[in-house]
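Input chain follows. Return structure tokens only.
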Amino acid sequence: MTRGTISSPERKMNKEPVTAGTVSTDILKHSVSIAGHRTSVSLERKFWELFQESARRRGISVNELITEIDASRRGNLSSAIRLYVLEELLEQASPKISSF
């Protein structure tokens, strides 16, 4: 596939990965536990990797971080995780204001 290719409906149905630049947009299903309840979330590989890094930085497990997000989310858990990752990236990108 060429860079920036958008898949046709047939490719989506076959679950073939689509690439945007060099980042794979294939969605993977991950088994997780929320307060002892097993469930799954479907996330793009990069979102999952960034989410795992966030949990490591905070010194907690992925399941603990998911439980925190689940407690305050409205709507779909996978979307809530994506928004969490996005918010972290935006915070890291914004200039820090030092207090005097």
